[in-house]
């Protein structure tokens, strides 16, 4: 999937959601919204995320910390009549620390950040390939010092494989290298256990049943970015999140805060 295709798809998708989201409202449930960056526009102000949070609050959304959301979902104790939202970010881009974290601090919110260790440790050639061919953006990764500070301040650090590769494979050695390897590298850097894993690309088609089993053997909590109307996939093994970005229109985000089921 190339960058041009993504831009066209996003353009037409936005038109459709503009129409469908007219007069929508947030639905009760525990919603985990997963983003990647503040904006593809590197000059965007963090205020766009703050304005989104304020708009959601004004429409009746209540924000909770990531770990609280997971506890409610895993225990199947969803408060009735409340729309609760928590946040996660994948890929570990630098602006998660420099632009998104300050807004989270302002709202006293703790989120989760899923990172690819080889993106952080790779040389310039590896990083350029990663940005150009894998995530289709020119954004740089957080440093380990930034990630350590996030963890020290109560945010959750999770794994996202070593290299952001599809896990739709039955090759156990490959799966363990990417999944277990990312866990080990992060734990070495943070000197603490890592309990959360989100597989790359998010859609359920990008991980095999074998991959789910390998991930569940390494991590107590595994996440998709798919099937957001249901709390779990793969027979309760995978917790589902919903894609968003900080610069999305308010009505687009609200449109995806729909009723959910187990």
Would you kindly provide a written description of the structure presented here, covering whatever features stand out?
It is a single chain. By secondary structure, the protein is α/β, with parallel strands linked by helices. The protein has one domain (3-255): Glycoside hydrolase/deacetylase (TIM Barrel, Alpha-Beta Barrel). Helices cover 42% and strands 15% of the residues. The protein has 10 helices and 10 strands. Strands 1, 2, 3, 4, 5 and 10 form a 6-stranded parallel sheet that branches. A two-stranded parallel ribbon has the order 6-7. It has a two-stranded antiparallel sheet with strand order 8-9. A hairpin with a 4-residue loop joins strand 8 (232-233) and strand 9 (238-239). The longest helix is centred in the last third of the chain and has 19 residues, at 172-190.
| Shape, per Cα inertia axes | globular
CATH class wording: Alpha Beta
Q: What separation lies between the terminal Cα atoms? A: 32 Å
DSSP strand tally: 10
Broad structural category = alpha/beta
- Estimate the helix proportion, in percent: 40-55%
Total tally of structural domains: 1
Order of helices and strands: HEHEHEHEHHHEHEHEEEEH
Query: What is the residue-mean pLDDT, rounded to a whole number?
Result: 95
Number of distinct helices: 10
